[in-house]
Amino acid sequence: MRYLCIISLILISATVSAQHAGPSYSFIDYQRTFTRISEAFNRKEDTLIRQFEEKKLPWPAKYIYLRSFKYDSQLEVWVKYDQNEKFRLFKTYKVCALSGSLGPKRMQGDYQVPEGFYYINEFNPKSVYHLSLGLNYPNASDRVLADSLQPGGDIYIHGSCVTTGCIPITNQQIEELYILASHAKNGGQDFIPVHIFPIQFKNPKSVDYLTRFLKDFPEYTNLTNEMRQAYNYFEKTKQMPLVMVNKKGQYVLEASIPADPPKAEVAKKAQRPRTEFPEAELAKVVDKLPEFPGGKDSFQAFLDNLSNEMKSYLGETQPKTYVMVEFIIDKEGKPLNAKVIKGGNDDLNEKLEDKFDKMPQWTPATRAEKNVAVRLKQSIYIEKTTP
Which residues contact 347 (CB under 8 A, 6 or more apart)? Predict the structure, then answer.
């Protein structure tokens, strides 16, 4: 398959642009000639250095990577010092205004924030929005899929907390980001990647919203899947994915996502410690069942709260589930060995079993006026909240 271009470039060291005269005149020296930038460096650089020290990160970062999530209104700043290192999250900024909806930008004046793989191609120290970093919209994909005559442009990360299709943060935050990007540019990172995703894919509520959105706008499904692949690659490797654009304008991930460990290994790792309890000591018939502290109403309240808490662990294609939990109440009233025997998913079941094992002490069951241990089963209905 032939591709139009690489959209997310491998981070390769490069010399600082030769547009500035003299080897001693760096990109940062040039930026500091602007009063607004010089003042920002004086205000912010020492604070940034301390923050890097607190997180045990080498200063300055030679490589930075920005991830923006539209629906979640977040802008993540990932950094590293050496090309072979994994990226580490430095900070997450709140995107303080949003225009448009999910889905890519396709024409001038649609007020949409783009979705896709971009890089910083402009440092603007005299922006009307305090400071700004320009993105290379339209990229190769946009030039194929967007309006051929008026695709739009002038997409920035900027200050001032207002937008008609950009990514706005506060003036304090854009000063920090501008300094970080200037140091990376000064160190040779000519292409600072900025990936704009529709949602934060590990947030169940956001995934639920996206699922509903795609039912109304199925034409964005392919783009969403392309973005999700790149997101998953970075989540597993903490390295930049290599993304290409084919003749149809589609993004193609030129790397395989590392496989999960074999199932047997995962199961062994996830196995919960269990208390050895002889089956012969479990009463088959009792005169009185064990009782949760406070009685039936309190136990129902516990189950209701648990159901509400567990819904965030439902999978993106799992709107609801019935879960059956089996557990033991020993003759002292202690809960033991909770196990989901029906429904749920691996992550949800592990959390649920932990909650049951950590229940407060019950009043134990009795048989012939003696306390006895019993095995109980309890079903729980869990459903995602529909706005």
Answer: 313
Phi, psi of 55 (to 5 degrees): -95, 10
- Both 164 and 247 in a single domain? yes
Are 268 and 318 contained in the same domain? yes
8 Å CB contact between 290 and 362: yes
Q: What angle do CA 175, 181, 185 make, to 5 degrees?
A: 140
- The helix-helix angle for 35-54 and 171-186 (nearest 10°) equals 80
Q: Which residues contact 339 (CB under 8 A, 6 or more apart)?
A: 325, 326, 327, 353
Report yes or no: 338 and 353 within 8 Å, Cβ to Cβ.
yes
CA neighbor of 12 nearest in space, from 76, 86, 84, 77:
84
Same domain, 99 and 231: yes
CA dist., res. 337 & res. 357, Å (int): 7
In a domain, 258, yes or no: no
Q: Tell me: do 187 and 40 sit in the same domain.
A: yes
> Mean per-residue pLDDT for 340-366?
91
Taking Cα atoms as reference points, which of 380, 383, 271 lies closest to residue 326? 380
Boundary-marking domain end, from 213, 230, 253: 253
Residue 186 within any structural domain of the chain: yes
Q: For residue range 286-328, list pLDDT tens digits in order.
A: 899 999 999 999 999 999 999 999 988 887 677 888 899 999 9
Helix (H) or strand (E) holding 36: helix 35-54
For residue 343, pLDDT over 90 is answered with no
Q: What single-letter DSSP state applies at residue 218?
A: G
Together in a domain, 375 and 241? no
Domain that holds residue 339: 263-383
* Residue 91 falls in which region: left (phi positive, over 0), alpha (psi -120 to 50) or beta: beta
Residues 221 and 319 in one domain: no
Would you tell me how many other CB atoms lie within 10 Å of the CB of residue 332?
Answer: 11
